[in-house]
Specification:
Elements: H1 2-12, E1 61-62, E2 68-69, E3 77-79, E4 85-87, E5 95-97, H2 100-108, E6 115-119, E7 134-135, H3 142-148, E8 152-155, H4 168-172, E9 176-179, H5 186-199, H6 203-224, E10 234-238, E11 246-248, H7 253-260, E12 264-265, E13 273-275, H8 278-284, E14 288-291, H9 299-304, H10 313-316, E15 320-322, H11 325-329, H12 335-346
Parallel strand pairs: 5-6, 5-8, 6-7, 8-9, 10-12, 10-14, 14-15
Antiparallel strand pairs: 1-2, 3-4, 11-13
Amino acid sequence: MKKKLISILTAVTMLTLCACGGTGGKPRNSSQSLVSDSGNTGTDDTDTDAEGGGTDTQNSQTDADGEKNSGQPERRTIKDPDGTEITLPQQTESIVVLAPSLTQIVTALGMGDKITGCDTYSEGLEGLPEDIPVFDTSNPDMEQLAALAPDMLLTSNLTLYDQESPYQALTDAGCCVICVPNSDSIADIRSDIEFLASALDASKAGGTLLEDFDSQLKELTDTAKKIPQNERKRVYFEIAPAPDMYSFGNNVYLNEMIELIGAENILADQEGWITVEGETVAAANPDVIFTNVTYTDDPVQEILDRDGWAGISAIKNKNVHPVDNNASSQPNHNIIKAMRQMAEILYPDYYQSR
């Protein structure tokens, strides 16, 4: 039961939770993501710039006589995506990451070797050093964290969300604690990658990562424009099975993913992450059902055998399919993999397998 609950929490990303324990910051407002003909996604204005991300960047020090000298640059003070003012390290040599979506971004930026601790869901991820300490995502061992004395701690709003300033001791000890709330749009996902690339002085790698992301996103959305309206499929996407079914409506990046590949979420008239009644799905009669559930023996067969669903088109036609859990449940660049997987299942005549 605990494993099921944790999996659900990870999948739905706890978007309604408060900030990560910082003070004085404003929570990030979700932006609407638009894909233009050039393949770029629109993002809200942020408090950081694309390159340095700094509000008070200084590259020199001033001595007692007012003359500038060539000492080490002062630490940049910026705001993290949660709106909290933070001071970046002069150099980041050790990082602890407490969210798998962020771990995947850091490793994709080529900085996995600097990770000295991670959350349980990131353990064993390609690009991570072996035998590093592992922490509970929602309630990490603070003494163990302090003992590691990392230069930087990356966390989301899943960790210690119900506590006020939980990382104050680490901050006082000189650790830069950065909160990146789980994204609810593709625009926010892009902003997170840009921010982390800047904060980690990996803007070049971040640019390459986003260039590939945008290129693949444009390819998928351009293909979707070719699908006639009468061929477009209606989809139900399940992230927790019966009897406690869970899914999502609009203003969730998964809904956006479905729409951008030319399909319709049957629950798009609802808002955010939602519990689902079996009767609601039966009445909506989806053409295709996706599931990213991994903690039951055979989630696809369970859906096919579900009481009261025999008349649903997706059930009658055996159009029930698994979707990569990692790619669909972590808000980062890997969502492209889940989008392509769903697109090839929905429209094999339009999307060619890679």
